[in-house]
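Protein modeling request. Please complete all fields; requests missing the sequence field cannot be processed.
Requester role: graduate student
Desired output: 3D structure, token encoding
Chains: 1
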Amino acid sequence: MIKAAIDIGTNSVKLLIADIIRNESGERQLSVIYEKSVQTRLGRGLYQSKVINEQAKSDTLEVLKNFSDIISSFNCRSKRIIATSAMRDARNGESFANEISKALKSPVEIISGNEEANISYKGVTLKEYGSDAVSLLMDVGGGSTELVFGRGDKVISFTSLILGSVRCYESYPISDPPKKSDLTASKHKILETLDSDKECIRAKEKLAFDKVISTGGTAAAMACISRQTQDLDRDDIDSMEIPFKNIIDIRRQLWSMPLSSRCEIPGIPRKKSDILLMGVLIHEVVFEYFGAKVLCPSTKGLRYGALL
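Delivered output (308 residues):
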């Protein structure tokens, strides 16, 4: 059964087309047929204006129309379109969702942060991480960060934080190259957000885990930076383990140089060389907060859970 899912994020629009099959145990699995991600930066300027600007809407709609044509060419049985942080935060998010629905002749679901966390967990736990130990799933998007605490395929608790690579980059002033004071202030604001969230406080007090499973562009970029290449495939990324020390090293490297130099680092997509500063820093602060030791990057997540 071939199905398609589109994830309209704050930074990128992603398409996944997959065949849903059942294994010998009767469990549903995804066999990927086609996937693509295009950065449209839907959330550009949103955190000052509170609305999605016309250029961002136009760029995103153009990509969505192209995705819709691709879906049609695969004769998908169904398609699901999900919108996340930028669309739920913007004053004109609902009206833009209606515009997309008319253009693509399909409904657009603007999901809550908690729904986003829950669906992402279902997608990532398609991968077996080797035990039924308590785990933390981290999904750093452009406008929010979802944290899901679980055991095996069962969710214990989850939360959605008003932290994201685009949101923080546009909300916290950063010099080029960044100053030490910029780093200190940004870390403090991220930590404040964690310390004011009841689920984070409860998890810090009652749960203990070494590994953090992280899905999204920042985790994939850190995997590529660690290997100094942009050519890692899905299996390479999904099988990696990145020690916390390496995350600190990557953050120090990025925060010590101007944007022009970050663009030249192997593994960093040119269009993400600005916002990656915040994506990596959010990872570092979360790791410090929970005392985690190892990052397991995952290429799965929201789109996979949405199809299931």
